[in-house]
Amino acid sequence: MDLGTVRSFRPARSRGDLTLSGGEVVVGGGTWLFSEPQPGTTGLVDLTTLGWAPFEPLPDGTLRIAATCTIEQLVGAPWGGLAELARQAADGLLMSFKVQRTATVGGNVCLALPAGAMTSLLAGLGAEAVVWTPDGGERREPVAAFVRDVRVTSLRPGEVLRAIDVPPSSLTAPAAFRRTSLSPLGRSAVVVVGSGRTVTVTASTTRPVVLDADDLDAGLAAVDCWYDDAHGAADWRAAVTGLLAREVVSELGR
Amino acid sequence: MRIDDRPVDATPAPGQCLRTFLREQGALAVKKGCDAGDCGACSVLLDGEPVHSCIVPAARAVDSAVTTAAGLGSPDDLSPVQQAFVAACGFQCGFCTAGYVVTATAVGREVEDPERTFKGNLCRCTGYRSIRDALAGRSNVAPGAVGASVGAPAGPRIVSGREPYTLDLPATDVLHVKLLASPHSHARITAIDTSAAAALPGVHLVLTHLDAPDVLYSSGRHDSRLDDPDDTRLLDDVVRFKGQRVAAVVADSVALAEEALALIRVEYDVLPAVLDPEEARTPGAPLVHGEKSTMRSRISEPMRNVVAQTHGEVGDVSAGLAAAEVRVSGTWRTSRVTHAALETHGARGWVDDAGRLVVRTSTQVPFLVRDELAHVLGVDRAQVRVLAARVGGGFGGKQEMLVEDVVGLAVLRLAAAGVRRPVQLELTREEQFTLVPSRHPMRVEVELGADADGVLTALRLDVLSDTGAYGNHAAGVLFHGCHESVALYRCPNKRVDAEAVYTHTVPAGAFRGYGLGQVIFGIESALDDLARELGISAAEVRRRNAVRPGDGFVVNGPPDDDLMLTESSYGLPQCLDLVAAALEEDRTPAPGAGWQLGSGLAAAMIATIPPRGHHATATVTAELDGTVTIGVGSAEFGNGSATVHVQLVAEELGVPVSLVRLRGSDTDATSYDTGAYGSTGTVVAGSAVVAAARELRSLLAAREGAPLTEPLVAHGEHHGTPRSVAFNVHGFRVAVHPPTGEVRLLASVHAADAGVVMNPEQLRGQVEGGVAQAIGTSLQEEVRLVDGAVTTRTFRDYRVPQMGDLPPTRVLFADTYDDLGPRGAKSMSEAPYNPVAPALANAVRDATGVRPHELPMTRDRVWRMLQERNPHD
User: Fold this and answer.
1) With contact defined as beta carbons under 8 Å apart, do B766 and B640 qualify?
2) Domain residue ranges of chain A, discontinuous segments joined by +
3) How does pLDDT run across B88-126, given as a tens digit for each residue?
4) Which Pfam families match (chain B) (predicted)?
5) For B524-575, how does the pLDDT look when each residue is reduced to its tens digit (9 = 90+)?
6) Which residues contact A25 (CB under 8 A, 6 or more apart)?
7) How many CB atoms lie within 10 A of CB B793?
8) Residues of A in contact with B779 (CB under 8 A)
9) Has the ipTM of the complex gone over 0.95?
10) pTM
11) Does domain B2-159 have CATH number 3.90.1150.10?
12) Using CB atoms and an 8 Å cut-off, which of residues 17-76 of chain A contact chain B?
């Protein structure tokens, strides 16, 4: 939709361009930003013109995914044995393939919706968010902690998500994926990602919850942030999360 | 940018989305459906790749080549994909079609997984079967006239993006209206300061309650304006729901109008609100229209928040229950549902050269809007012209006057000030949820008694309907809802108590089925329980009790005097047999271990025409060039009546359909038409068209072959009485998974008693579309309110069925002939919706042993229902 209050659309060419003036926000794909009214937003700063490689294998085996990597590009990244997991996660998004061509991984994570499938995937793989700080520095934080609550991240004013690093250990560990929603291809109500001996719950909780596969029942019993919205009641989500988490653990154990 | 190979050198605004920019540049094939990336109506190819243009920043596309549906082919030179959509009849209203054509072109002809590929393309009309046919290259059209699957005349224009919808007009010089919404459920405006807004350069007019005519009316439109209560002001100093319009700004652009809205200062005296329909009638509850009078506003009991009611009994229900061998009872609840027509409400108004107010609007009822606009604005109706282009979906939602009043007032006020520019108001998708009427939520209590043979001895019904803050359609929906649902069954002792109440929530209004679906959900569920108690089949309990030819149609008083059923038109037994047999035959296996299987069916009856008058006039003109022109008042919004009218005239005059043109939905096109609601496009307007065609045939015969020297015009009319009834039966086989609450539809079968079928493919499409909408209501759709505020405001949060949510429905027709309809036809647009929810609930009951009482039967509700039965499952 049109953002009537926006007076400028500024392509960023260097890190210096990311210093925002009042009312400016950064835009990745723009697929969410342009999908809801944005009162108070007067300027857009385009991240996609920074020319970040969508993904790059780092020397230590880490897979770096740029914040501006599109969902479609993410599916095509060198996942090795996790290619199916990446595809399942992308399929878990309500958005159509046409939107996945434009929507970015960073945008999906920064939106911090419980059903954000990129949060599910990357938190599930123990990935770390690489955040550019306004002083020119950088800080790192697990994605599972970076997303703090519904529509809340740890980003402070002036900070920009640069990339998400998937550790080499996760790229070779066995993984499993389960999801459900109120309608077959609807917005996710429960997503469970297993990797190695961790089980990460998203969509059914207000923030990512990382559980120990070897102590699943106690972990599930301790969850205190079941989510309740138009995409599923909390009691049902808790019950189905339990079912799917057990399936994931069973699959990982094979 | 290049748009469809045409260079464009305009510069988009920084916050403008690509769709708006394209439309500003005249690329009107690109539609605005959801404006949020969810529906796909705005799909275009951007440098060859498909995108949803509403969520693409236009600034990013300035160096790109954009291809719309119009760039893929033209009506005379359709692309293969466009030809496939025409051949398959892969559209109804057609508003989503250009987006489908673009997307299908991008993915190529071989689509392996259409459910996933097209999950971002919503269609509200078809139920997707015909779209699947188009994608697979199957043809569904056949040549001929009446009885043949003639394609819609507009088809080639629709698939190539050339068919103009309401607001597909040049953008030049247009003023735009935006509405300020109430933040309160109930409040009195004590002060409103518009000076800062009015002073903003580019703002031409700000309207508040101080500008509104002192006229009470209803947004709901009927042939008689007395059918709905006069409880609404154009802008009021009391707001009665969150989202109600408080003020309107008219400015050079939408963005400017929005900026001005933010500058309006309103002071409210917040008043107590009642949000719950059960509480609305309790003593001391806040009153929604307590200051209004029964006499002046036609509100049944304003001091009890009751807008309409019926209480009555025939026979002796207590005695009937006492004498019964078997008794069942229960209370059922239905939710708020939105129509989700892909074209939002919108209108553009101007003053024509003759000084008349002209309003082009997305309406099912142009004549009724014209008459009420004249009433509200205090002008002669001859000074108002209302017309509709092809309408992008209706479903009853456009039997309301929701935008035309503001547009009309703004046009007249500006004209008086010497400003003669067109004024446009296009509602947002969000406003379609927060401002526009939905389906009435109802609480339906049913008690049935029967003798040992399963013959009903008593039927008691108690209904509470929540009409929200205004009473548009409250009475009609309540009375209709309790009418054919109850009259379907012969029973000597019946009692109906039904009330529609006001609450301080978004209003409800006309919705496909007009109340029947809600009440039938209760009655048909109870009847299923009765059959189980008696140990007879669901079909058999209905055969034993259904109304028969010669019976009166009885609810809770004397029978109707203009409703009749003849032997040749009695299709219910056939429908029951067809569905029961199809369910018996189905062998679709369970999806896996742990699933429970069941089947169920339900029946519905509907009058073919609404009561108390439905009028149509039509002309059929023999032109000098050998073509024939139909002038008719009813609108085309995917109902297919335009196709049927052309077929009827071709048949009557013995000419090919290609020589027949239709001019419709314009108060200048004919003298009067009540409008396209109550499924009357074929049976009322169609009968008027047939009468005019027969008159023309006589006039031509009298000329004995003498050549025409001027066009020869014949007139016809029909007045909607006497009326007949039509029947529908739906059946499902389902699998239910108790651990997750998932319900899968293994088989869906629908039998319709439509009389003589005018156009088999179109009728099948109407049935499939009605079933699809009802499956949405039954399983997944719900407008949710928290503290009176709508929280489901986008298609992301409100689940209109996607292609992958719907099973194929087998559609079967009863072989009947209706003496009252044109060439033996009956109406069949709303009816297929009505039996679906109880059929599904009955199947779930059969599978699980637990009776659902609430819609929608979402997975979380079904899971909880089964948990409560057996917490250890």
Assistant:
1) yes
2) 8-50, 55-170, 171-253
3) 999 999 999 999 999 999 998 678 899 999 999 999 999
4) Ald_Xan_dh_C, Fer2, Fer2_2, MoCoBD_1, MoCoBD_2
5) 999 999 999 999 999 999 999 999 999 999 999 999 889 999 999 999 999 9
6) A33, A38, A41, A43, A44, A45
7) 22
8) 183
9) yes
10) 0.97
11) no
12) 27, 30-32, 34-37, 39, 41, 43-44, 46, 48
